[in-house]
Amino acid sequence: MRSPRRPAQAITAAAAIALLATSTPAAHTTTAVGATGKTGTTGTAVGAVGGAGGAGGAGAGAGGAGAERVVDGGRCSADVSLLGFTDDLDKATFEGTAVGGLSALAPTRASRALALVDNVGTTPARLYELDITHRRTLSAQIRGMTTLRRPDGVPYTGADFDGEGLVAERGGQTVLASSETEPSIRRFRLSDGRQTAELQVPERFRVTPSGEAAVNQTFEALTATPDGRVLYAGMEGPLSADGRDAEGRGLQRILRYERRSGAYAPVAQHAYRTDPGLGLVELVALADGQLLSLERGFTSGVGNTVRVFRVSATGATDVSGVESLSALTDQRAWLGKRLLADIADCPPSGATARQPQPNPLLDNIEGMALGGRLSGHRRTLYLLSDDNNSATQTTRLYALSVRLKNGPELPGRALLSRPPTS
C-alpha cells in the first residue's frame, strides 16, 4: 500500500524537454505505479528545430527524434535553467519495496531510465525502471524492478552492496553498478539481475584497513563515454594519503578504465579538486575528454550545497604514481573545471523542504544524467535526490536546461581544450 501523497501542484508554464535516449531495454518487471506528488515547471516548449544525436553510456542520453526549442523561465545561471521538478517518487512503494535511497540515474531509451538504490538495511539491492514524461509538468512513474544478484542467484542486500553509480551499457543487455562497500564495480544482466563480471580495483582504493579509502567515501560517481570505450569512476572523498588542502578542497582521484577485448581495465588516475567542504557525487562523460561533475555537501541546520561543473580531462596527467596529491605543484596535473550552476540559485518554483535548506528546491542530490538535445547548444540534464529513506528528506527528480557550448574556459588548469559541440 502506498503512503499518503500531497496533491499535485503546477506552475503555469509548460515544461520543455526532449526525450531521454539510447537503446537499453529496461528491467524485467513491467507493472506500473502512478504518482501524484508535487510538481513544478518553469519552461515553455516551442516546436521542434532539428535532428537527433548524442551520447550513450552512463548518464548520457541521446536526443530522440528531434531537438526542442525552449524559452527559459527559471534561470539558475547564464548556462543553466530549471525546467521543472517532481516529487512523484517520494515515499512511494513498488511490489512491496520502499522507493527511496535513489542514488544514480541512467537513461536507457525514449522516456525511460534506470534508478539505483543505495544501502538500505537487509532489503535486496535493486534497480527501478522509470517512465519520465514531460507535458505540462514533469512526471515519473515506476514501470519495473530488477533485483541485483550474485553469480549464484542470491540477492545482494544493503549489508553487502551500497549502490551509488550506474551505467546502462550499449547493447541494452547489461548495466555496470558501483558499490561503496569495498568498493566495487560489477556488471549485471538485466534479464535476471545476475552478476556476470567484476572490474579490477587498485588496492589503495579499497576501504581501510585494506586500503586508503574512508568508509562511505568511495565510488559514488560512475560514467562511460558515448562510445563505451572509456569508463570513469570518481571517489566521493580523498584517499588518506591525499586529504584536503588548506582551503578545505578535496584532493580526489578519478579512475579511468579503457575497454579492451570486451573488458574494462584501469589505465590511469586523474587528479580532481572539489570545492571546499564538498564531495564528488556524480560524473557524466560527454566526448573528447569532456565531462560534467556534480558536487554536494551538507551542513546541519543550514542544508545542502549542490553544484554542477563542466570538466576537462583532455590531455590529463596520469597521477597513478603520485603517492600524495598534496605534493602536486603543476596546475596542469589537475582536471580543469568551470561552475555551470549552484542549484541554490535556481528559482524555488513552489518546492517545499522538510528540513532547513538555503533554497527549498534543494535536497540530497546524488544522481545526474544527460537527456535530449534542446536548441542553442543546450541539453536536458536530470538530477535525482536521495532521501536516505528519511522522513525529513525528499526523493525529487529535476529537469534542467544546460548550455554545452564550444570552448569552455577552465581556470585552475594551464592546459585548456577547445572541444567540439556536445
From TrEMBL:
Signal sequence region: 1-26
Species of origin: Nonomuraea monospora
The protein's name: Esterase-like activity of phytase family protein
Phytase-like domain residues: 97-388
Keywords for the protein's UniProt record, in alphabetical order: Signal
Keyword Signal part of the UniProt annotation: yes
